Amino acid sequence: MPKCLNLRTFDSEIMKKLLASLVMMCACSMVAHAEEPDSHGARKQVQYEGPEVLKFSLEGRFGWQMFRTAGVTDDDRTGFRGDFFNLRLDARLYKGLSFSWRQRLNITSERNFWNSTDWMVLNYAPNKDWLISAGKQVVAIGGYEYDRPPIDMYNSNSEYWNHIGCYQFGASVAYNFGENDRLTFQFSNSPFRTHIGSNNTYGFSLMWNGRHGIWETIWSLNAFQCTEGRWMNYIALGNKFNFLPKRLWLELDYVNRASSRQTFLFEDCSVIAEMSGKPHSTVRLFAKYTYDVNNTGTDADCYVFDGTEMHGVSGGIEYEPFKKYPEVLRLYGSAGYSWGVNTNPGGAMQDGQIRVNVGAKIYLDVLKGLKWAINKW
After folding, report:
1. Contact at 8 Å (CB) between 264 and 283?
2. Which run of H or E residues covers position 325?
3. Which pLDDT tens digits describe the chain residue by residue (377 residues)?
4. Do the beta carbons of residue 187 and residue 202 sit within 8 Å?
5. Does the residue 25 lie in any domain?
6. By 3-state DSSP, what share of the chain in percent is helix, strand and coil, each rounded to 5?
7. Which of 86, 240, 310, 337 is deepest in the core (most CB within 10 A)?
8. Which three-class secondary structure state does DSSP give residue 230?
9. Domain total for the chain?
């Protein structure tokens, strides 16, 4: 995943002005629906058509974690820590024209603001069926593990997920055909660009989102430029089966990777399966299995190295104590174990590795809070 922002590289006054501007924008949105008198002197609602903040939120996650490999504790990754602090802004600019931005504000050694920008995208919807987007976007790759926000993952992810550069600049066009299907075509920077040291590399993606009965899909065909002018091709098949709506579901992903020197099915791939159940509306239990393998004999894949074959199992619990406001606070605990061979010395998963996470995620919808405070006042 992309590295994060170093807040120390920002002047404190600039950050204060930025946050103050956002608060002012939110406050202005409170009067988005003004009133004016009609011919009889009564007040009537006037629909505002100009810029309007639709959502402004903050979320963060912190807790305690442990990494222990082959009986040795990794002291650098064990202990209390904060993992994420995200800011999100969604706004309408004009009829059919909208803007969305999500920024990670984690303090690390990263010195590039844009590497910590998950997305900053301009959207134009001429009607209910078409959506045209440009800016920094999520690369349109299928799979439910890939689709989930990183803040909702607990170090129990596939080796593939831990390395892919999923946020890139590009443009996309989406079309809804029918009520339950959407097809998206995207032209973007290649997610391999940071690994091969070249910004002048690109990718093409075609993604289908569907919903039919208990079956939901996020499928994609992708072609990304990688080393020496070669292309890496993906077939990513994300499937979700809702056995009991909002009570019991299974997410099953398969991602196949091939290139011009590596045209094998099932030789370089990842399989991810996660079963979730909610015995109560405030509790989610989950169990997960991941499998990453690369037996191609080539160096084309710089995410899952040749010679790798890793298994991972994990499970955990999420608890949202405020039933009326479930997103505000989530308590979680998870544990995972991985085994096999990882030929990447910097790989996230290692043989005999135990991972434990306990903590809390906090979410605050600032815009809703301001509206409540103003109405009460």
Report:
1. no
2. none
3. 433 333 333 444 544 555 555 555 555 554 444 444 444 555 555 566 678 889 999 999 999 999 999 999 999 999 999 988 999 999 999 889 999 999 988 655 455 677 888 999 999 999 999 999 999 999 999 999 999 999 999 988 999 999 998 999 999 999 999 899 999 999 999 998 877 767 788 999 999 999 999 999 999 999 999 876 788 999 999 999 999 988 999 999 999 999 877 778 899 999 999 999 999 999 999 999 999 999 999 888 989 999 999 999 999 999 999 988 888 999 999 999 999 999 999 899 999 999 999 999 999 999 887 777 777 77
4. yes
5. no
6. 15, 55, 35
7. 310
8. coil
9. 1
Q: Tell me the residue type at 315.
A: G
How far is Cα 213 from Cα 230, in angstroms, rounded to an integer? 40
Euclidean distance between CA atoms 318 and 326, whole angstroms: 11
Count of CB atoms situated within 10 Å of the CB of 183: 14
Smallest Cα–Cα separation from 5: which of 111, 84, 86?
111
Q: Which residues pair with 254 in a beta bridge?
A: 237, 271
- Residue 8, helix vs strand vs coil: helix
Measured distance CA(234)–CA(220) in Å, rounded: 8
365: enclosing H helix or E strand? strand 353-365
Q: Please, which residues have CB within 8 angstroms of residue 8's CB and are 6 or more apart in sequence? A: 107
pTM over 0.90? The answer is: no
- What is the length of the chain? 377
Integer angstrom CA distances of residue 223 from 135, 171, 184, 255, 344: 19, 15, 14, 13, 23
* Residue range of the domain that includes 62: 54-101+119-376
Q: Does residue 45 lie within any of the structural domains?
A: no
Residue type, 143: G
Which CATH number fits the domain that encloses residue 299? Answer: 2.40.160.10
Question: Under 8 Å CB-to-CB from 216, ≥6 apart: which residues?
Answer: 210, 239, 240, 241, 242
Q: Distance between CA 200 and CA 68 in Å, rounded?
A: 39
Within-domain flag for 346? yes
Hey, what amino acid is at 275?
M
Phi, psi of 74 (to 5 degrees): -85, 100
CB neighbours of 65 closer than 8 A, spacing ≥ 6?
77, 78, 79, 81, 155, 355, 356, 357, 358, 359
